[in-house]
## 1
Amino acid sequence: MSGPQPRPGVLDISPYVPGDSKAQGHKEPIKLASNESSLGPSPRAIAAYRGMAERLHRYPDGASADLRAAIAKHHGLDPERIVCGNGSDELIALLTKTFAGAGDEVLFTEHAFAMYPIATLAAGAKPVVAKEKDLRTDVDALLAKVSERTRIVFLANPNNPTGSYITKDEVERLHRGLPERVLFVIDAAYAEYVTRNDYTSGMELVAKASNVVMTRTFSKIYGLAGLRLGWMYGPASVVDAINRVRGPFNVTLPAQAAGVAALADVAHVDQARTLNDHWLPWFSAEVRKLGLEAPPSVGNFVLVRFPKANGKDANAANDFLLKRGIILRKVAGYGLPDCLRVTIGLEAEMRATVEALGDFVKS
Ligand SMILES: Cc1ncc(COP(=O)(O)O)c(C=O)c1O
């Protein structure tokens, strides 16, 4: 073979398959495929974004200082230990390539978020997968897979696409079981939606441990997925390493401004959470009334499990709903071929989806 060849591992990557955004014949489809907030961004974030239009000839602040200060103030954190990123995806990739390489192992669970295997293979490291129990992280199964070569453990809590979470006690037990040289990355992309009092985003663990990083995003409850904005909180040594590796202007000018404004609009976030608190249980219950399974979720999405029967399976359901202009997410790539993932949207979107699923079941 001639010509430049990518590093080993790169061609083993199955490219990330984003949720569909089009339904043929429907100009304004109901898009419930990417866990975006149907409420949209805060009006304050939109104004801040627009306010930057005349300044686009200027580079952004490479340190995202105002945004880090706003995040730190909002969550009671040390701004020096925050790094902002072009989506938390960028931070996941940076953490992986900074702390793992050829010969190293990166550990996560069976149905974990798809960026972990991608980032691992892109870094030339080896993905190692631990079994889940009932679509939930099994701490013992993860710990049993730790080897001398393990460099990173990723935990999405809650996990996408399963919607399950592990408790603060379980997170701490997992951490206690890891050697100190292993970087423990807690991906809390959906933390703002979780209303259980035994849940932790991992923030206080970062504060007291030398090997824990928490990642967060503005793509979900803040409704800014299109801007690409995420952040991480970690030990000073990890922050220092990531700041050496990241692009010098990795977060755009309008993203920094919109992020600051979005944080200040607490009422908007509360509204998004309240909507989810109502429509997630409602939707899950309606789906179960139709005889379909909907495993418990604490995020802004829920899996729906379909029978394997021909014409009644997840693929058939997906096609049926697409024809109605409703876009759900196939999750076969996550090892869940009999499920579809449904993002919790606004009332009309949820009612239309239940009605379409009902028609599908009866068809
Ligand atoms: C668990 C999890 N982590 C990270 C992300 C990536 O978010 P971002 O838009 O910040 O890159 C997602 C998005 O789907 C996610 O589900």
## 2
Amino acid sequence: MERQPGSLLLGTGRCVPDRVVPNEEFTATLDTSDEWIRTRTGIRERRYAGPADTSASLGTVAARLALQSAKVEPREIDMIVCASVTPDLMCPSTACLIQAALGCPPIPAFDVLAACSGFVYALSVADQYIRTGSAKKVLVVGAEVLSRVSDFSDRNTCILFGDGAGAAVLGATTDTKRGIHKIRLFADGSRQELIQVQSMVTPNPTPGPGSLPNLRHLRMNGREVFRFAVATLKQLVEDAREDCRALGKEVKLIVPHQVNVRIIDAALEDSDFPPDRVVVNLDRYGNTSAASVPIALDEGIRDGRCQVGDTILLVAFGGGLTWSSALITL
Ligand SMILES: CC(C)(COP(=O)(O)OP(=O)(O)OC[C@H]1O[C@@H](n2cnc3c(N)ncnc32)[C@H](O)[C@@H]1OP(=O)(O)O)[C@@H](O)C(=O)NCCC(=O)NCCS
């Protein structure tokens, strides 16, 4: 009897812009210090897009590298799903721009918006298309230029974010021991005000005391998000490890959204999970929203921290609020 297809991770890629922005660059204009940023967040530097870089251009480079590592040609891709909160345009989608740049034939290409959970949401869409047999190979991209929506007069937020892109190619498999085992997705729009990036068509709230000079900037209640993030990450990891044990496997590597090293440490503090099996690169890139998980995933794979046959856990949370996890055997 023919087995239902599942989705295997065939390859990954990443791209960060050349410009390195160390913490010291903020001290000229803001009441902050390298020491404060390092000890409160774990971030030492981040990358900022150059004038010609966009989510689509960074995403295209990451996508090419993912296709190369998957040994898949652009013409073989059946669908592109891109996650971003900083698309080049509101229309067309960043996925369409990436499709054109890669020279893929006419295929479905669209964006999903789930903030920092965006890549795992996009992965779930790809996985569903593959499982139903509607697609055999899908390109999934997370790409951001958060420096373009950062408020450089707000020390609470601007120091946290960076730019970059990551990508993965998923392919159909009938091997039930490998591939995506389970994806969990959640959203709670009642807490929408905790992290926001205004769009050009949003009716802006009436300006007044306390309102920001430019409402298109990212706004965030850091302390509340911190609380949410620790509790959510802890629960996602516990639940996914239980799922993993039910499969007779152990999680080899956790690839969390790169948000704040204190959040990651606090969430895993009571668990017996070894800290050296958690990918942390936020010291070099900061929080790159939808690009954060695929960049960390690509680093983990290329550095040899996980190999074919290992089971890994992607976990993410962010604006929406949204949160998500994906349990995958490579
Ligand atoms: C933003 C964040 C780093 C702040 O750290 P914190 O330990 O919670 O700090 P607090 O918000 O309690 O602020 C403590 C003090 O530091 C100050 N502060 C904030 N940013 C600062 C900076 N860059 N430099 C120096 N001081 C700063 C605050 O103004 C506050 O001063 P006050 O006590 O005089 O009011 C932390 O809450 C965080 O990482 N939250 C998650 C944010 C995030 O990544 N969101 C994206 C979601 S996916």
## 3
Amino acid sequence: MRGVAHSEFPELLELEAIIREGGSRLDTQIACEVDVGNEKFPVHVVALGNPSPDVPVAGFFGGFHGLERIGTAVVLAYLRSLVGRLHWDSVLHRQLESVRLVFMPMVNPGGMWRGTRANPNGVDLMRNAPLDALAGAPFLVGGQRLSCRLPWYRGLPGTPMEQENEAVCRVVDQEFFGRKFGIALDCHSGFGTSDRIWFPYAHTVQPIDHLPELHALMEIHDQANPNHRYVFEPQSRQYLAHGDLWDYLYQRACAKPGRVFLPLTLEMGSWLWVKKNPRQVFSRQGIFNPLIGHRQQRVLRRHLSWLDFLSRAACGHRHWIPGDDVREQYRERALQHWYDKPPP
Ligand SMILES: [Zn+2]
């Protein structure tokens, strides 16, 4: 295994320790390398489970925004738990025969190293895809091309995406687009007081084609975890944004009929951590991450079951995705639920 391990970069050290522990049971690659001053950091990709294109895939992404370390921590905690169980968990081995699991826990190591939301070029990776909001994206926050010195910078118009995003696209191409069914989860923090599960679109209030599948996924999650506290909704219900990478990849996935690609974002509500520990507001890390040990543990514990649920949901997707006979009924229910459409 190549890569720089830096003693002051705990997330990278943890990821590389997990990769060592998993050994030959993991498929690993370095999707790209990011230069920051004299340092060079790898963007690792880890996969396990059945590599056959005939099985579904679940993918877990984190660290697009360098300040949101808790997103990376959640993905690493799940990967650590899986790798630890490979030694003895025969049920997990059965599961891995019929699903592929892909991890990209730290997409923007340069930003995390520098303690910035953006990558080392000053580009916000979640505003950088070649896709414009149709109308109503909020000034600055929705993405801007004024200056890389301001937050939410999209990059120069007409230029290729940043290398970290190109790397994500290659991984999604390799691991998702050759398969009929995939769920991706991208872990963020910083918005509001509730934990939210967002799905596309972010660039328009138009509903996506796969609303029936998303409503069905929400229903089986409610059944499996009746006391959960996630708010499940299209991102456009909160705000619109330019350049959303998951909108872009979702649209690319839809170019092939019959392929189902459901990209989700976990947006952990950090304002609650700030409310419970108001001194956090004076720390840049503190606005985006739980700073107290027991709160960090509780956050990791709570989200682990959501990540594991998604692996199982991908694995068993044939049993819950709505068939052609009921798909339009699911769409009606979803439109009523999320788009305030009156019942027929
Ligand atoms: Zn974020």
